[in-house]
Amino acid sequence: LALTSMFVTDICGNSVLDLELSDPLPANDFVPDTISLVAFSIDMNSGGLLLTFSDEISDPVSMLDLSEVVLQNAASSPTEMIVVGSAITLTTGASQVINVQLSRNELWFL
């Protein structure tokens, strides 16, 4: 972190000491941003798949690769699986809950 004395003053008007670009203050710790799927639901009547994430997805249409989603008929040792490759992302703005429309073939599989 680098900053100039113009960044902040205390209640007496004293300026913070400069932190020069040539000698910045290193971070004490760095926690990378992570995201996970925390819940999902499927509406069998409409074919809607709601995906709820731990953090906001800024641009779901371009950031989600639905061909990486697989629906299967069991949590372990599934006998049938389908890739959700032809579904359409309906949520267009930043959101934690993303609405996806499954195709007829994908819905038929379920």
Give a description of the structure.
With 110 residues, this protein is mainly beta. It is 9% helix and 29% strand. It contains two helices and six strands. The chain has helices at 60-63, 104-109, and strands spanning 37-43, 48-57, 70-72, 81-83, 88-89, 95-101. Strands 1-2-6-5 form a four-stranded antiparallel β-sheet. The radius of gyration is 23 Å and the shape is elongated. The N and C termini lie far apart (52 Å). The mean pLDDT is 90.
Estimate the strand proportion: 25-35%
**Helical stretch tally:** 2
From the alpha carbons, calculate the radius of gyration and give it in angstroms: 23 Å
Q: Roughly what percent helix?
A: under 10%
Biggest sheet: strand arrangement: 1-2-6-5
Order of SSEs:
EEHEEEEH
Oligomeric grouping of the chains: single chain
Category from helices, strands and their pairing: mainly beta
Mean pLDDT equals 90
Globular, elongated, flat, extended or rod-shaped: what is the shape? elongated
Q: List low-pLDDT spans.
A: none
Largest β sheet strand count, sense and barrel closure: 4 strands, antiparallel
What's the β-strand tally?
Answer: 6
Distance between the termini: 52 Å
